[in-house]
Write a structure and sequence with these properties.
- This protein has a single domain, classed as MetI-like fold (Orthogonal Bundle).
- It is flat.
- The chain contains 15 helices and no strands.
């Protein structure tokens, strides 16, 4: 006789070796597939990050190596250094002058390339060509174009009777020149990413909207932009990370000066200030603290961007649900309060 416990919990049949192997494969194979990424990230990403934090807590010199442990003194010294805040201002100024126009122009170009154009592959390749050019070549070319004495732009300004601009001496003109380098190189790259997202939008939605009387501008703002929002968030976050880590363009913009970032540090970014502290002044501990502070700043700004875009997306979704409920409510009221269609049908069915 079987007891109540045996009836409630019958004994499971023993699995064969192949069945156990198949079960383990389904359970553990996903972790094996993603393990190489996490192993590489731990070696080339997580370990340098932790080691940088350890270096920042020591009086570390470039030549003598590790010195005394001084705790957070490097952070306190960095936060009270006016040149650090000057580099933060320069970084944000160049970032805003480059990222905002870059994303706007990239979205506009992607919308144009999404239309029916002749030689579409040629135009797509042409947009990507500036990204292929090395940053050093771009910086040298633009440094010559924005030259104060023999630059192309100043010669054009003088040709129409305007005064030349001190691109490599004044702060704001220097930021505009460096931002133009960044925009010229990265706009095409972001254009192709946004174009791929636009081409994934179903064409039936555009056809339905055009039948309802929506023009191109209305379809772009009501269908295209909401549909590519996840890709746009990705482009925005990557542009933020790259913009806050800008180094090559300000480093090579005025290579004739001994001090990086200009004679008056007018376009010295945070990464350039970090490089100067590490290799020119040999303060590796200070440089590590600057790197870690920049890392925290990028994380904070990335989270703010993600939160804002997510809040906007949730607000649009709620508004869309409200419109849908309002339309359903209107149709239900029409069905209740307007009996004429039913009467007409009833009259038409009479012999």
């Amino acid at each position: 006789m079987t007891t109540n416990a045996e009836a409630k919990h019958p004994s499971r049949p023993l699995l064969t070796y192949r069945q156990r192997l198949s079960k383990a494969d389904l359970k553990y194979s996903p972790y094996v597939y993603v393990a190489p990424f996490f192993i590489l990230f731990a070696l080339v990403g997580l370990f340098p990050l932790i080691y940088t934090f350890v270096v920042s807590l020591n009086d570390w010199d470039l030549l003598t190596g590790q010195g005394d442990w001084i705790g957070f003194e490097n952070y306190a010294t960095t936060l009270t250094d006016p040149w650090f805040w000057n580099s933060i201002f320069n970084t944000f100024s160049i970032f805003l002058l480059s990222s905002v126009p870059q994303l706007v122009v990239a979205t506009f170009l992607a919308a144009l390339l999404d239309q029916k154009l002749r030689a579409k592959s040629f135009w797509q390749l042409s947009v990507l060509l500036p990204y292929i050019v090395t940053p050093v070549a771009v910086a040298l070319i633009f440094s010559s174009i924005f030259g104060e004495q023999y630059g192309l732009i100043n010669n054009m300004l003088q040709g129409i009777g305007l005064d030349p601009i001190l691109w490599k001496t004044d702060t704001f003109p220097g930021h505009i020149a460096i931002a133009s380098m960044v925009n010229w190189r990265w706009t095409g790259y972001n254009t192709l990413i946004l174009l791929a997202a636009m081409q994934a939008v179903p064409r039936d939605i555009y056809e339905s909207a055009s039948l309802d009387g929506a023009g191109r501008v209305r379809r772009f703002f009501s269908i295209t932009l909401p549909s590519i929002r996840p890709t746009f968030i990705f482009v925005l976050i990557t542009a933020t990370i790259g913009g806050l880590q800008i180094f090559t363009e300000p480093k090579l913009f005025d290579a004739t000066t001994a001090s990086p970032g200009g004679v008056f540090h007018q376009f010295e970014t945070t990464t350039l200030y970090l490089w100067n502290m590490a290799f020119n002044q040999s303060h590796f501990g200070r440089a590590a603290s600057i790197a870690f502070l920049l890392f925290l700043l990028i994380i904070v700004i990335g989270l703010v961007n993600f939160s804002l875009t997510r809040a906007i997306a949730s607000g649009d979704a709620k508004q869309g649900r409200r419109r849908g409920r309002g339309r359903r409510r209107d149709t239900s009221l029409e069905a209740v309060t307007d009996p004429e269609p039913a009467v007409l049908v009833h009259d038409m069915e009479r012999p």
